[in-house]
């Protein structure tokens, strides 16, 4: 492998001018595409056949116009490929033999000229794959890969790797380094220009494939998940628009931080929620004790609920007799029992089963009516029979209608009912912890807790099957409980999942210790587990400090390595925390970038007030210049300068406090200052 040769200044100038010309021409072409789309939008109603078609066409064209919006500050392309024979892969990654030569620009979206010739290739197009994957040893038909540097939308530099001459920069790329080390002010940005080969492999994995990524802090898991969503939507737009793509993140601060990435990539329709929002059936107004909460999230509850629901189905005791004008039809108890048994064996969701039993009974009544009258009864007749009192009473007796709320209310209000469902599964003490001390009088008046929502969702899934989503991306998935995983599994029986997380960052009481368990609860036990170890956020010195905690975290994960060798770490024992935090924030403010003061939850509000009183202005939004962040919401976030306050209190505040500290220490992009009055946690000092 050789170092890239340098281009003489004069040639450099000529080349830069040519590249800027191509950029200007591409912008003009994009503008023309948008004009054409706007004209079509304006004329849409005249070509559509009917009002519905006109509306659909209008929506599609408006979307197209929005997708073609140009932003002067976002570079239209960031790379160039010179090809002497690249083999294009199809959607699945399989090569289909078309050999391509010539020059191609790679950017955020496809731009073509009037004749339809590509001026910029979408980064997700099959040919663009070579931009991310080619290396000197496997150059995939690439002779030269060029990366462009931009400043405020203006093309200012480029960097070549002549792969055909064995030149390759890898992580020594100046443009990659600049991108990684740039100050993090504002919301999270996309990484399309610098996706690394190991990340690209995950981003472009086929839609059918579920994957689980175990990655150390800052290895780009969130970035990979977001780019994977954009990639899948590009390849399977119509299918996924119908079925939906969902991103699940740990909290609303995190979702706010990542919210701008997909729109910047032209993807405006991906739902982004917390797991609680996904399963909410109304506001959670109740609270759980620590013990009952953990039991409710335990996978055994699924079986308790299943038993409780299906215990409602009983064998019919007598026959049905239905009057129909001057006739009277009859179905014997034995026949009814067989129907109930058969339908149970079919394994349908409860409500569908009930409908099917009703339909079978009506079919038997219909047979009798047909043999008597010689003609088929109408649908109205069938509905009348299905709703007739004897049929309704039979159904209410042996397959009663059920709602999640009523069932759970019955279980949590009544120790005997719970015991009947939980016998052999939950201990007596566990059952006692679940039953309400003061039962709600009706299901409607129950004050459901967040953990109850998980149980209600499980019941709802037993009663009626939810629609299947096309793809779900689960970020910080190590914190999902078995029951929460099941909630996602129910929503993806025909879809796939991308699971992103770090076992070392598990802070929930049910945090995963082994990805195989999580994937089994998600219904994808065969998914591969892929490690990511190269860190793009946390500087080397800080990674080293955080890695000291790993042996104490009880998980088996590969340690991270940092691409960043800059960075600064200070640990200071202070007398007065508030004074020290204010002084540290002032010192940090002398450098560009965002500042995050991460404090024990109990201290956060006081520090925010103290900073405000001192004339600093901590904001609440993530991505602002200064934020005071309670330790429990810092997950997934990052700041150029992180001030960690009182690590020992963070550790002592919760059961998995050491894991929390690991999360908190790994939020820093450039500088980490630790301020403490209490002795540091032992794990940090060994
Ligand atoms: N290939 C890349 N090029 C440039 N920046 C990158 C790349 N990959 C990741 N980054 C940046 O590194 C930072 C960390 O990425 P990200 O938040 O996705 O990591 P993570 O693995 O989800 O971290 P954590 O587990 O700590 O939440 C982000 O600022 C992201 O933009």
UniProtKB/TrEMBL annotation:
What residues bind ATP, as annotated? 215-222
Keywords from UniProt, A to Z, are: ATP-binding, Helicase, Hydrolase, Nucleotide-binding
Q: Which InterPro entries match?
A: DNA_helicase_UvrD/REP (IPR000212), P-loop_NTPase (IPR027417), UvrD-like_ATP-bd (IPR014016)
According to the entry, every stretch annotated as the UvrD-like helicase ATP-binding domain falls at 194-539
Organism of provenance: Pilimelia columellifera subsp. columellifera
Which superkingdom does the taxonomy of this entry point to? Bacteria
PANTHER family per record: DNA 3'-5' HELICASE (PTHR11070:SF45), UVRD / RECB / PCRA DNA HELICASE FAMILY MEMBER (PTHR11070)
Q: What is this protein called?
A: ATPase AAA
* Gene3D superfamilies reported in the protein's UniProt record: P-loop containing nucleotide triphosphate hydrolases
């Amino acid at each position: 492998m050789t170092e890239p040769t340098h281009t003489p200044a004069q040639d450099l100038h000529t080349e830069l001018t040519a590249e800027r010309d191509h950029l200007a021409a591409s912008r003009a072409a994009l503008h023309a595409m948008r004009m054409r789309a706007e004209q079509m939008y304006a004329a849409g109603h005249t070509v559509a056949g009917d009002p519905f078609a006109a509306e659909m066409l209008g929506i599609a064209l408006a979307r197209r116009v929005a997708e073609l919006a140009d932003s002067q500050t976002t570079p239209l392309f960031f790379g160039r490929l010179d090809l002497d024979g690249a083999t294009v892969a199809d959607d699945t990654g399989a090569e289909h033999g078309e050999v391509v030569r010539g020059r191609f620009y790679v950017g955020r979206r496809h731009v073509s000229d009037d004749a339809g010739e590509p001026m910029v290739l979408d980064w997700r197009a099959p040919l663009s794959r070579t931009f991310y994957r080619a290396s000197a040893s496997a150059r995939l038909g690439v002779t030269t890969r060029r990366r462009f540097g931009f400043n405020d939308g203006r093309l200012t530099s480029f960097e070549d790797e002549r792969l055909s001459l064995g030149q390759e920069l890898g992580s020594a790329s100046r443009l990659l380094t600049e991108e990684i080390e740039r100050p993090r002010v504002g919301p999270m940005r996309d990484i399309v220009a610098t996706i690394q080969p190991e990340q690209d492999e995950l981003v472009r994995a086929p839609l059918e494939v579920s994957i689980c990524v175990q990655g150390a802090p800052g290895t780009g898991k969130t970035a990979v998940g977001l780019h994977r969503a954009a990639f899948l939507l590009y390849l399977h737009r119509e299918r996924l628009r119908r079925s939906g793509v969902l991103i699940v993140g740990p909290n609303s601060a995190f979702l706010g931080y990542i919210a701008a990435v997909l729109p910047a990539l032209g993807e405006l329709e991906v739902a982004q929620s917390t797991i609680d929002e996904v399963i909410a059936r109304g506001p959670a107004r109740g609270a759980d004790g620590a013990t009952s909460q953990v039991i409710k999230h335990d996978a055994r509850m699924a079986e308790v609920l299943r038993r409780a629901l299906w215990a409602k189905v009983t064998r019919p005791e007598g026959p049905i007799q239905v009057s129909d004008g001057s006739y009277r039809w009859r179905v014997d108890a034995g026949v009814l029992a067989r129907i109930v048994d058969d339908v149970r064996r079919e394994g349908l969701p409860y409500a569908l089963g009930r409908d099917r039993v009703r339909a079978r009974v009506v079919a038997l009544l219909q047979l009798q009516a047909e043999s008597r009258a010689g003609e088929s009864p109408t649908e109205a007749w069938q509905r009348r029979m299905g709703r007739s009192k004897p049929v309704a009473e039979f159904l209410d007796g042996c397959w009663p209608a059920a709602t999640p709320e009523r069932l759970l209310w019955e279980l949590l209000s009544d120790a005997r009912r719970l015991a009947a469902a939980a016998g052999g599964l939950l201990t007596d003490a566990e059952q006692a912890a679940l039953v309400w001390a003061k039962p709600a009088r009706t299901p409607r008046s129950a004050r459901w807790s967040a953990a109850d929502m998980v149980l209600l969702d499980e019941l709802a899934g037993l009663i009626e099957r939810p629609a299947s989503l096309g793809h779900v991306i689960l970020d910080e998935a190590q914190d999902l409980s078995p029951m929460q995983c099941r909630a996602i599994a129910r929503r993806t029986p025909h879809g796939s999942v991308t699971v992103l997380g770090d076992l070392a960052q598990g802070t929930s009481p049910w945090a995963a210790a082994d990805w195989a368990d999580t994937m089994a609860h998600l219904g994808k036990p065969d998914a591969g587990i892929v490690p990511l170890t190269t860190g793009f956020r946390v500087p080397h010195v800080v990674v080293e400090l955080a890695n000291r905690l790993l042996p104490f975290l009880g998980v088996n994960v590969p340690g991270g390595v940092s691409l960043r060798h800059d960075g600064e770490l200070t640990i200071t024992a202070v007398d007065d925390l508030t004074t020290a935090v204010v002084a540290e924030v002032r010192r940090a403010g002398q450098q560009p970038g965002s500042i995050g003061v991460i404090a024990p939850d109990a201290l956060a509000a006081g520090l925010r007030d103290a900073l405000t009183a001192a004339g600093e202005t901590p904001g609440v939004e993530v991505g602002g210049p200064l934020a005071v962040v309670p330790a429990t919401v810092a997950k997934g976030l990052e700041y150029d300068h992180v001030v960690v306050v009182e690590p020992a209190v963070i550790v002592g505040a919760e059961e998995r406090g050491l894991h929390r500290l690991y999360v908190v220490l790994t939020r820093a992009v450039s500088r980490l200052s630790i301020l403490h009055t209490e002795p540091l946690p032992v794990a940090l000092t060994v």
